[in-house]
Amino acid sequence: MKEEDKLLLLIELVDGNVKEFLKEKNKEFHNSETLLKIDDLIKKNHHSKSPKYLIAQREYEKIKEVKITSMETYFINIARAERILSSLLNKEFVNPLMCSKEEGNISLASLVVNFNGKNAYLGDIIMSDVYLDNRKIDLVKEYIITWRKEVDETFIRPLQLLLTYPKNLPKKRRLPLNKLFIGLFLIILNFLFAFSFFLKGNYIRPILKFDYTNYFISIPYFLLFALLCIFDFSYIFLLLKRNNEHIDYFYAQEKLLFNSKQIMDEVRNNTEHLYQKMLNCIIYKQELNGKASQYSISENKITALSYLQEENERPELDEDHISNYEIVLIELIVVLVVYFIALISLYQMGLIK
Amino acid sequence: MSIIIKIKNEEYTSFEEFGKNIYKYFDEAYKLVNTSKFLKLLKQENIEYYDAIIKLRKEETDEDAFIFKVQYVFCPLMELKFRNYKFTSLKILGRKILLGAPKIDIYIKEAIKNKLFSYYLKLQGYDVLEKKLYESVKNLENNYLENPNRCYFKMGFLLAGTQKIVYRRKWYDSVSTFFQEILKPTMIHDFCKDFEKSQYVFAWLELLGYQDKLNKYFSLTETEKNWEDDNNVS
Question: Residue A39 CB: number of other CB atoms within 10 A?
Answer without folding.
Answer: 12
